[in-house]
């Protein structure tokens, strides 16, 4: 093995150590974050379970699938009507 | 204009689902494609029934109702309908309330109207008084991250008409990619774009009738386009319970079948869920309060009283002024 090869191996070893250390740190940070989230989730869950009146969602960032009432419009048009003696396609009626 | 004079590019399919008769219309030149799409529309209703029926103990809704006090992860369909039902309860100040199932059952409505044994059970039913406190819709909790719902003890959901409206809207959303369409969910009508060359879908508000199987007289005709016309009514499906007339629309303020001066309430709205909720709320509210609330929301509506008298909201009036052509 020549000098270049030795340097190359040392660099490779350094890189492996750095990656391993980085991975360990990432793992530790990740675990910490997960722990925080788990704790937060537990807190939320506890809050939600005990507060039966005011809770809506533990996550304000997630949009609930509510209707957009601002887009309201009247779903009919002004036009000469068809004859009332003729048959409509469908009758609006109570279905019980 | 009779049924047989409709353009031959208008295809329709009628079937039963969610305890009701459904009809779906689609304008499309290709007959085979239309047939396939209409068949898929039927399947959408049948799948929704498996999820949202309160009469099926195995439905997802029944499973949720059977598990109060814990967080229950739910499907996107049940999640969306429940969230929107809660939103509508808030908008109607609780006049529409999806948590009245126990009160509804106490009034005798325990099985589907389609179940012939319903009538015998209703007539024989004894008054039950174990109705929980009312206005419990605020206690429904939703957890967006886990798409979970939480119901308190004693509260069960009945999504009834609002579920039907949600599915009708989904069907219209699907079919609208192919052509103009209309869903008639047993009298609640949801339309997409107007058919080619027409101002809208030719529909009508029917006069109240005590005979659901008989031919309906027309109260007034209307063009329906890109929205829903939903009707709630107590003109039929009434029964006697302990000497009192009962029906399926519970007043959240009393927990009893609504004592209302209206026979039917028809509301037009952009979305089916909102039209359904407000039709129920208007009927429960009675004529005076209904007119006030509907006007505040600028909703187009027609209310028919116990003696057949018609009144419409200011938002609807301009659409009814033109003379009919013959």
Keywords for this structure?
heterodimer, A: 96 residues, mainly alpha, 1 helix, 3% strand, elongated, disordered N terminus, B: 326 residues, alpha+beta, T-fold, eight-stranded antiparallel sheet, three-stranded antiparallel sheet, 8 helices, 30% helix
Question: What report would you give on this structure?
Answer:
The complex is a heterodimer of chains A (96) and B (326). With 96 residues, chain A is mainly alpha-helical. Helices cover 50% and strands 3% of the residues of chain A. Chain A has one helix spanning 3-50; one strand at 90-92. Among the domains of chain B are: 1-54 and 162-198, T-fold; 60-160, ApbE-like superfamily (T-fold, Orthogonal Bundle), CATH 1.10.3980.10. Chain B contains eight helices and 17 strands. Chain B has an eight-stranded antiparallel β-sheet with strand order 1-2-6-7-10-15-16-17. In chain B, strand 6 and strand 7 (188-191) form a beta hairpin. In chain B, helix 1 (31-52) runs antiparallel to helix 6, helix 3 (76-91) crosses helix 7 and helix 7 packs antiparallel against helix 8 (287-296). Chains A and B meet through helix 1 and strand 1 of A and strand 2, helix 3, strand 4, strand 6 and strand 7 of B. Strand 1 (90-92) of chain A pairs parallel with strand 8 (201-206) of chain B.
| Helix-strand category of chain A | mainly alpha
The helix count of chain A comes to 1
Give the helix proportion of chain B (percent range).
25-40%
At the fold tier of CATH, the topology name of the domain at 60-160 in chain B is T-fold
Low-confidence stretches of chain B: 123-130
Which CATH architecture of the domain at 60-160 in chain B? Orthogonal Bundle
Rg over C-alpha atoms of chain B, rounded to the nearest angstrom: 20 Å
Specify the structural class of chain B. Answer: alpha+beta
Strand content of chain A: under 5%
CATH class (first level) name of the domain at 60-160 in chain B: Mainly Alpha
Total beta-strand segments of chain B: 17
Order of helices and strands of chain B: EEHHEHHHEEHEEEEEEEEEEHHEE
Q: How many individual β-strands of chain A? A: 1
Number of helices of chain B: 8
């Amino acid at each position: 093995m020549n000098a270049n090869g030795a340097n190359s191996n040392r660099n490779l070893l350094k890189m492996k150590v750095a990656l391993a250390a980085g991975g360990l740190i990432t793992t530790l940070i990740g675990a910490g974050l997960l722990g925080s989230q788990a704790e937060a989730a537990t807190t939320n869950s506890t809050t939600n379970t005990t507060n039966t009146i005011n809770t809506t969602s533990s996550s304000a960032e997630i949009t609930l699938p509510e209707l957009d009432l601002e887009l309201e419009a009247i779903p009919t048009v002004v036009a000469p009507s068809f004859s009332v003696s003729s048959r409509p396609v469908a009758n609006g009626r109570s279905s019980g | 204009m009779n049924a047989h004079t409709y353009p031959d590019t208008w295809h329709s399919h009628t079937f039963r689902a969610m305890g009701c008769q459904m009809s779906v219309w689609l304008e499309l030149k290709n007959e085979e494609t239309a047939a396939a799409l209409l068949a898929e529309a039927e399947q959408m209703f049948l799948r929704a029934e498996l999820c949202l029926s309160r009469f099926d103990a195995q439905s997802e809704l029944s499973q949720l109702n059977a598990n109060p006090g814990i967080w229950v992860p739910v499907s996107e369909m049940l999640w969306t309908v429940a969230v929107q039902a809660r939103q509508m309860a808030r908008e109607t100040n609780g006049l529409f309330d999806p948590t009245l199932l126990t009160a509804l059952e106490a009034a005798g409505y325990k099985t589907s109207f389609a179940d012939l044994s319903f009538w015998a059970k209703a007539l024989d039913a004894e008054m039950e008084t174990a109705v929980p406190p009312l206005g419990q819709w605020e206690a429904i909790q939703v957890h967006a991250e886990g798409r979970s719902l939480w119901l308190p003890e004693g509260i069960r959901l009945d999504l009834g008409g609002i579920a039907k409206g949600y599915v009708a809207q989904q069907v219209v959303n699907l079919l609208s990619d192919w052509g103009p369409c209309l869903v008639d969910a047993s009298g609640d009508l949801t339309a997409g774009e107007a058919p080619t060359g027409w101002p809208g879908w030719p529909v009508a508000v029917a006069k109240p009738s005590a005979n659901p199987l008989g031919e309906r007289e027309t109260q007034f005709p209307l063009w329906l386009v890109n929205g829903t016309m939903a009707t709630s009514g107590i003109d039929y499906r009434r029964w006697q319970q302990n000497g009192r007339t009962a029906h399926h629309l519970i007043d959240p303020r009393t927990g009893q079948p609504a004592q209302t001066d209206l026979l039917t309430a028809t509301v037009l709205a952009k979305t089916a869920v909102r039209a359904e909720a407000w039709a129920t709320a208007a009927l429960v509210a009675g004529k005076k309060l209904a007119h006030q609330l509907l006007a505040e929301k600028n909703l187009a509506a027609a209310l028919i009283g116990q003696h057949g008298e018609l009144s419409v909201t200011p938002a609807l009036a301009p659409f009814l002024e033109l003379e009919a052509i013959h």
